[in-house]
Amino acid sequence: MRSEIISVATGSRERVHDITGECADFVRAQGEGEDGLLHIFVPHATAGVALLELGSGSDDDLLAALRDVLPADDRWRHAHGSRGHGRSHVMPALIPPYATIPVLDGRMALGTWQSVALVDLNVDNPQRQVRLSFLSD
């Protein structure tokens, strides 16, 4: 297994951040011409990884849906940090902190409109780490 950590600046607002390019670069460097699996893992209790179409409004739709399901209000028992911070700790149960993508001939086997996104509702933590691991024979 080959692995590295990338840093992602998510800023101080809710964010769906496209990391497809970083994932593709990693796979290209680590698995040129190989078949295997790319595993993406976010070692944070308040962020997740999603595979979805980006740039067509889907990222804003995802954030809107998460606001509906997990409102940023005072209902959360986990209450330190900014208002509604507890919802950030619940989000990884809905959007897990990991994803695994097949790699064929050194390229991620994503669908036509699929992208890899880091989903972060935690406005208190503007810098994230993402572990990329390539597993092959």
Q: Mind explaining what this structure looks like?
A:
The protein has 137 residues and is an alpha+beta fold. It contains three helices and eight strands. The model has no long low-confidence stretch (mean pLDDT 93).
Spatial strand sequence of the major β-sheet: 1-8-3-5-6
Radius of gyration: 16 Å
Q: How many β-strand stretches? A: 8
Summarize model confidence as the mean pLDDT.
Answer: 93
Order of helices and strands: EEHEEHHEEEE
| Weakly predicted, low-confidence segments | none
The outline comes out as elongated
Brief account:
By secondary structure, this protein is α+β, with helices and mostly antiparallel strands.
Which short descriptors sum up this protein?
137 residues, 5-stranded antiparallel β-sheet, elongated
Write the layout of secondary structure elements.
Blueprint: E1 2-9, E2 15-18, H1 20-30, E3 36-41, E4 47-52, H2 58-69, H3 85-90, E5 98-104, E6 107-108, E7 115-120, E8 127-136
Antiparallel strand pairs: 1-8, 2-7, 3-5, 3-8, 4-7, 5-6
